């Protein structure tokens, strides 16, 4: 059932995605990963063998895999019309063991968004409990030397909406400072914790001195880029290689957009009433497990 809903969603999004590519160009598709690990069995953990196949597809594809920083060149008229960029949220240490060797072998750049408090052993995410391990500064230095740059995912991973200016600046500036002092002084990117942002958060991110910021809004990025509102496409454990190709081509964008806007469209209550029934067919996370857009 879950697969059927995914297929229907992708089929419904295929034609709009083709049309958008034809009218506006393919754009830059930024992929979001969290963990690359076989365990625990969680949709945010992509098994290493699956990840390796996905990277091989990308490296032999027609769209170049670029670093986020190349977007700046493109925004300045550098002419990137079709590309893929790779991002990893939260900075789990399995990235060092399972993703880094593959990226290094294939020569693919990427950005890992880390939480300095987690890097230094203070705090964790409830989703995976206190036993989880994160990348440390030493691992990050080694990864940066091979083209995998580190970005900020907030100082403590708290959602940035609703903070007073001072608190907001602390989350954004202190995390940037931690990256610059433990790695090097290069300009850095931000990933809004849990993808939550508003105009005030965007302004604060600019004020703190970031190059730009990524969100969990679905779709490709086309010039002129909104550098503090970059869209991303989440890759999950549920994606077969076929799904992965469809996601990179944009076929899931429409489904993701509809699912993310369900509240704005006035159907939020639908979720509450229908979820128990949906779960019987789709698994414990209901439609959240069918579509992406879930974030940590
Ligand atoms: Zn996160």
Spatial gap, N to C terminus? 26 Å
Counting DSSP E segments of at least 2 residues, the number of strands comes to: 9
**Overall mean pLDDT:** 85
Percent in helix: 40-55%
CATH homologous superfamily placement: Glycoside hydrolase/deacetylase
Query: Order of strands across the biggest sheet?
Result: 6-5-4-1-9
Number of domains: 1
**CATH fold field value:** TIM Barrel
Global geometry: globular
Radius of gyration: 18 Å
Q: Which architecture does the CATH hierarchy give at level 2?
A: Alpha-Beta Barrel
Number of helices: 11
> What fraction of residues sit in β-strands?
5-15%
What kind of sheet is the major sheet?
A: 5 strands, parallel
Instruction: Name the helix and strand elements from N-terminus to C-terminus, one letter apiece.
Output: HEEEHHEHEHHEHEHEEHHH
Sheet/helix structural class: alpha/beta
Task: Write a structural description.
This protein is 44% helix and 12% strand. It has 296 residues and is an alpha/beta fold. The protein has one domain (2-289): TIM Barrel. Strand 4, helix 4 and strand 5 form a beta-alpha-beta unit. The longest helix has 23 residues, at 2-24.
Short summary:
The protein is an alpha/beta fold and 296 residues long. The chain contains 11 helices and 9 strands. The protein has one domain: Glycoside hydrolase/deacetylase (TIM Barrel, Alpha-Beta Barrel).
């Amino acid at each position: 059932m879950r697969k059927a809903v995914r297929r229907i969603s992708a089929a419904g999004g295929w034609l709009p995605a083709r049309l958008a590519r034809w009218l506006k160009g393919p754009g830059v598709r930024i992929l979001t990963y969290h963990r690359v690990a076989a365990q625990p069995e969680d949709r945010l953990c992509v098994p290493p063998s699956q990840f390796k196949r996905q990277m091989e597809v990308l490296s032999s594809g027609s769209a170049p895999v670029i670093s986020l920083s190349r977007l700046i060149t493109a925004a300045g008229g550098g002419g990137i019309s079709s590309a893929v960029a790779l991002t990893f949220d939260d900075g789990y240490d399995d990235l060092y063991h399972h993703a880094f060797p593959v990226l290094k072998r294939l020569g693919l750049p990427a950005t890992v968004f880390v939480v300095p408090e987690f890097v230094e052993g203070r705090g964790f995410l409830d989703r995976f409990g206190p036993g989880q391990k994160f990348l440390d500064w030493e691992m990050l230095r080694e990864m940066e030397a091979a083209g995998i740059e580190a970005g900020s995912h907030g100082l403590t991973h708290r959602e940035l909406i609703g903070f007073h200016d001072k608190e907001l600046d602390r989350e954004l500036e202190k995390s940037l400072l931690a990256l610059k002092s433990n790695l090097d002084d290069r300009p850095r990117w931000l990933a809004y914790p849990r993808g939550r942002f508003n105009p005030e958060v965007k302004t604060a991110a600019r004020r703190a001195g970031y190059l730009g910021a990524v969100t969990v809004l679905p779709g490709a990025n086309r010039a002129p880029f909104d550098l503090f509102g970059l869209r991303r496409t989440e890759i999950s454990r549920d994606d077969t290689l076929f799904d992965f190709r469809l996601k990179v081509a944009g076929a899931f964008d429409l489904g993701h957009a509809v699912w993310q806007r369900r509240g704005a469209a006035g159907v939020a209550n639908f979720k509450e009433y229908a979820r128990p029934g949906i779960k019987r067919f789709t698994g414990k996370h209901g439609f959240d497990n069918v579509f992406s857009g879930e974030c940590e």
